[in-house]
TrEMBL record:
EC number of the protein: 2.7.4.6
UniProt subcellular location: Cytoplasm
InterPro entries named among the record's database cross-references: NDK-like_dom, NDK-like_dom_sf, Nucleoside_diP_kinase, Nucleoside_diP_kinase_AS
Protein name according to UniProt: Nucleoside diphosphate kinase
Listed transmembrane segments: none
NCBIfam families: PRK00668.1
Role, per record: Major role in the synthesis of nucleoside triphosphates other than ATP. The ATP gamma phosphate is transferred to the NDP beta phosphate via a ping-pong mechanism, using a phosphorylated active-site intermediate.
Length: 140
């Protein structure tokens, strides 16, 4: 399987509860390398642009407000099949449906406050990585 990169976000519910290190340990235990990482505070406008694909959904406003409510940690994860592997480590979007041992099963509070985001495909991974990082900031 090819080496891929994927965009990960540790969301406000998790940064607020000081879970960044525990979540990063899950990625590293799964063989994902954190090749870029920064803690930032999103504006409503930035959150809205990042989640533009969901703008017709009823939860869009709530999602943007949540993402701008506290700092987030944005990161690039690298590894074999990193996109699918990260989604496996994260678990299902709704923590009630997430498998044992996944980040969302252990830490997520609800479908909205679900601790982490991960890109869902190679095209979105490339777009989402370039939304937050320049090539110079990614060191594999
Ligand atoms: P994420 O992987 O970041 O992609 C879109 C996000 O929308 C998703 O995780 C959830 O946090 C959020 N989301 C999805 N469904 C709902 C919902 N029914 N109510 C609130 N937020 C949702």
């Amino acid at each position: 399987m090819a080496i891929e990169r994927t965009l990960s976000i540790i969301k406000p519910d998790a940064t607020k509860r000081n879970l960044t290190g525990k979540i990063n340990a899950k990625f590293e235990e799964a063989g994902l390398r954190i090749v870029a990482q920064k803690r930032i505070q999103l504006t409503m406008d930035q959150a809205g642009k990042f989640y533009e694909v969901h703008k017709e959904r009823p939860f869009y406003g709530e999602l943007c407000e949540f993402m701008a409510s506290e700092p987030v940690v944005v990161q690039v994860l690298e590894g074999e099949g990193a996109i699918a592997k990260n989604r496996e480590v994260m678990g299902a979007t709704n923590p009630a449906e997430a498998d044992e041992g996944t980040i969302r099963k252990e830490y997520a509070l609800s479908v909205g406050e679900n601790s982490v985001h991960g890109s869902d495909a190679p095209e979105t991974a490339a777009e989402e990585i370039s939304f937050f990082f320049s090539g110079l900031e990614i060191v594999g």
